[in-house]
Amino acid sequence: MKIVLGYSGGLDTTVIVPWLRENYRADVICMAADVGQRGGVESLAGKAFATGASGFFGEDLKEEFVNEYALPVLQAGAVYSRKYLLGTAMARPLISRRMVEVARRTGAHALAHGCTGKGNDQLRFEVSFAALAPDLPVVAPWREWDIRSREDALAYARARGISLDGIDVDKLYSRDENLWHISHEGGPLEDPANAPGPDVFVWTRDPVDAPDVPLEVEVGFEGGVPVSVDGRPLSPLAVLMELNEIGSEHGVGRADVIEDRVVGIKSRGVYETPGGTILLAAMQELEQLVLSRRCLALKDTLAPRYADLVYEGLWWTPEREALDAMVGTMMNNVTGTVRLRLFKGQATVLSRHSPASLYDLDLASFGASQGYEHADSSGFVKLFSLPQRAIAEQKKAGSPGAGSIPPAGPRLTLRTD
């Protein structure tokens, strides 16, 4: 039997390899995805083979992650729990798809992951597997084995002589990192009354300690795709990496979120998303310039639904494809530049420009306008207020069910002494 395991090289997947060999008598093929986390995947092959893996695939998925997953989420304006920009959730369908491709190539009989039974990731992986490879059974060791804690996992590894080099056996926080963000959970953060300590943050400078001189940056878009920084043409990946760097320096992108997991548990996550925060602020301002009022309202309606979809692991669905098609149509004119000021944790929009702008300076001016006659608004105002006039007349006449005008209160007298 062959099983493809989504492999990170952390403690959980390190002990899962021998556990699968012992309990399923399986050849374990490890698939590690490089989506921008520190260290990549180059050093993981040796670790995987040392624990008994029979195969290893290290996949550089950074460009694909940004272009095919992060960008659609950005364009949809998807934000979960008001502040979470979905960095972990958007990476899971990509990793799942690649695991299925490896399973097909190697003739594997099953898929395995290291997600716990309390979290969202089990759902994201397994719903993706169901969509992409419904014939392959899924092994979820955390729902089967007797290991119940990090201490149990360490004891399991040591009993089998498994090297723990490169694994932080004393780590306080559970972290997930990719090009879009880094998340932090566990430890003192489990109590929402505890403020995040300075040991939590890895990417971003504390806004209090950020430079006292603000930085202005201009981001360029073509059809909803970020293509430049300060006029320099860059790939979307390069744009994100540069904005991550300068955003981190200025403390931009921190979010402390109480979120509702799909399994029904409220949890707390602290996120650092500097580049994504800047891109979202810039894109939304550009949309305000080029999209009509009704398009903006439609997009604002779709955004939370898209966020729920991504968070719940429903990426590989006709619903997501339909939403992408709708958003893609609205992205056609999202072309232009936005200038922002980064200062002490804030990304403030200063200006925006687009060749597709719907903003007409002549119409918007309070002064004389060639395209607008003030007198023309009289009829519009009268018709627009017609329903309110009808309601007022009903109240005045005391119509049944319409209520009546409440009696006047005591007259107030202004004293001047």
Class based on secondary structure composition and strand pairing: alpha/beta
| Average residue pLDDT | 94
User: What global shape is seen?
Assistant: elongated
Number of helices: 13
The CATH architecture name of the largest domain reads: 3-Layer(aba) Sandwich
SSE succession: EHEHEHHEHEHEEEEEHEEHHHEEHHH
* The named CATH superfamily of the largest domain: HUPs
Number of strands: 14
Helix content: 25-40%
Give the low-confidence spans.
Answer: none
Order of strands in the sheet with most strands: 3-2-1-4-5
Tally of domains = 2
Radius of gyration, taken over Cα atoms and rounded to an integer in Å: 27 Å
**Under CATH, the topology of the largest domain is which?**
Rossmann fold
Tell me the name of the CATH class of the largest domain: Alpha Beta
- The proportion of residues in beta strands is 15-25%
Main sheet characteristics: 5 strands, parallel
Ends apart, CA distance between termini:
96 Å
Written overview of the protein:
This protein has 417 residues and is of the alpha/beta class. Helix content is 40%, strand content 18%. The protein has 13 helices and 14 strands. The chain has a five-stranded parallel beta sheet with strand order 3-2-1-4-5, with helices on both faces. A five-stranded antiparallel beta sheet has the order 10-9-8-13-14, covered by helices on one side. Strand 8 and strand 9 (225-229) form a beta hairpin. Helix 1 crosses helix 6 (150-159), helix 3 (62-76) packs across helix 4 (87-106) and helix 4 crosses helix 5. The model has no long low-confidence stretch (mean pLDDT 94).
